[in-house]
Amino acid sequence: MWNHYYGLKLTEQDIQKGIHRNQVGGMWQEMRELQLKFMKEQGLKPEHELLDVGCGSLRGGIAFIDYLNEGKYSGLDINSSLIKAGQAEIKNANLNSKKPVLIVNDSFNFKPFNKKFDYAIAQSVFTHLPVNLIQKCLINIEHVMNPGGKFYATFFETKRKFDASPIHQPNSGGIITNIDRDPFHYHISLFKYLVKGSSLQMNYIGNWGHPRNQKMICFSKGKNSA
Ligand SMILES: C[S@@+](CC[C@H](N)C(=O)[O-])C[C@H]1O[C@@H](n2cnc3c(N)ncnc32)[C@H](O)[C@@H]1O
């Protein structure tokens, strides 16, 4: 499979020990605060519907659930044990009353949420995915975003489109990214190509304070699209 999250299994004891926090990249507090701060700066308000794509064990999720009104947080992940860990985090944070909805699936099928979203985020998810899965995610998300909705995604960037060698990502603590395996890097032109002709438009944001040099892009759904 494409990345280790497909087969990852955490026991109840692992979850009690907090191992799920490292499995999504550690930096639990820092990445939680960064995600919420960034989305608030982009206009996220408590009354908005938010979709967290590849939500994992809710590193950002807990902050979003706390901030949003009841029923406004939806999270999807491929890994059931990370979702289980996320449910434990919700309980520990006394946030069950916010009624977050968490779904496990491996095909970016957002239809079971049965709603449309104003905002979505995929933080440190495209970095683990080959391009065909990113394409699938974008195809499916287009149908569940409200007109004017915004989907933010992070990725590792290469500036060298025609160079297949691995890249030592600067200011990343030594991460090496690849064209053909996890962690993946991409040239920005790829994302433009993937949404060309759809109702999504891509804008490059770039640096957003990520401690491992992941860049941010935004896919905006046209205001007049269905
Ligand atoms: C580095 S973690 C980031 C989790 C979360 N976004 C955060 O910031 O803490 C990557 C997440 O992407 C999820 N993931 C990987 N491949 C996926 C796929 N095909 N569909 C849904 N989620 C996926 C993993 O299970 C994992 O939870």
Automatic annotation (TrEMBL):
Pfam families: Methyltransf_12. This is Methyltransferase family protein. InterPro entries: Methyltransf_12 (IPR013217), SAM-dependent_MTases_sf (IPR029063). Residues 51-151 form the Methyltransferase type domain. GO terms for molecular function: methyltransferase activity. It comes from Cytobacillus oceanisediminis. It comes from the Bacteria. GO terms for biological process: methylation. Keywords: Methyltransferase, Transferase. The lineage of its organism: Bacteria, Bacillati, Bacillota, Bacilli, Bacillales.
